[in-house]
Amino acid sequence: MPVVICPDTSALSEQAAALVAGAIGANPKLVLGLAAGASPIGLYQALLRRQAEGLDVSGVTLFGLDDYFGLAEDHPGRLRASLQRHFLSGLDVSPANIHWPDVPPQSGIAAACAAYERSIALAGGIDLQILGIGANGHIAFNEPGSSLACRTRLVHLSAATRRANAASFAPGETPEAAITQGIGTILQSRRIVLLASGESKAAAIAGAVEGPLTAMLPASALQLHPEVTLFLDPAAASQLARRDDYDAEIALLRRHGLFV
Q: How far does the chain reach from its first CA to its final CA, in angstroms?
């Protein structure tokens, strides 16, 4: 998988945005999967700037990757609310084209998860999925131990994930569960872009790229996908053993017009 090591988080966001914008330009009806969290915020802001410069996103269909379970619909800590604040409120996309992994009132959890899978399939599948990564190697909310074939479902969040998320919530309010696309769902995306910055992600990145395929590091499942690109800052890339080789590979691809 191409590993792009950028000088800093600003360059990371800009280079990832260039890839996503290029995909939208090539396919104006792109089905785009959205991750929340801090990692992709710069990417989303860069896409909004490109929209202001003429990028037409009106035909894009969006699918949220995950969200907390059990919070009120209007709770500001919901990942849906975060994406609305940082991205969707400024995006020229019809609300009808934005989909969320929700459990509507009077709908069973299993039925709602199955319906979300069907909605992705009815849209033709996800063309490009944006991902972050947890310090414990989770992608979406697929915690260590998740089946590499799992689908959209209700999950219990690990203690490590709850600690990482606690800053967004009042004491005692941090959610213990989430609805998430499964690893199997993510791997069906036609292309995947993963962003990571900071030293806290370095061990997970090294394991995902260079370690063995294991359910105990869910992001390692990305090794099974033929079209994954990682955008990293130097801190997130600091534990990669083959860092120089990744730089050389990206330089080669760029020389031959095979990478933006």
A: 15
What's the token pair of residue 162? 């709850």
The one-letter amino acid code at 188 reads: Q
Helix (H, G, I), strand (E, B) or coil at 223: helix
172: tokens are 């005692």
pLDDT, one tens digit per residue, over 180-233 is 999 999 999 999 999 999 999 999 999 999 999 999 999 999 999 999 999 999
What's the CA angle centered on 184, arms 120 and 160, to 5 degrees?
110
Domain boundaries, the chain: 3-255
Mean pLDDT of 229-241: 98
Rounded to the nearest 5 percent, the helix, strand and coil shares of the chain are 40, 15, 45
Nearest CA to 231 out of 28, 17, 61 is that of 17
pTM exceeding 0.70: yes
CA separation, residue 188 to residues 18, 135, 224 (Å): 23, 24, 11
Known catalytic residues? 66, 136, 138, 143
Query: CATH assignment of 3-255, given 3.40.50.11810, 3.40.50.300, 3.30.2010.10, 3.40.50.1360?
Result: 3.40.50.1360
**Percent of all residues in the chain with a pLDDT value above 70, rounded to a whole number:** 100
Partners of residue 87 on adjacent β-strands: none
Q: Select from 133, 125, 127 the least CA-distant residue to 3.
A: 133
Place of tokens 């990206």: 250
Is 90 exceeded by the pLDDT of residue 106?
no
| Cα 109 from Cα 165, distance rounded (Å) | 23
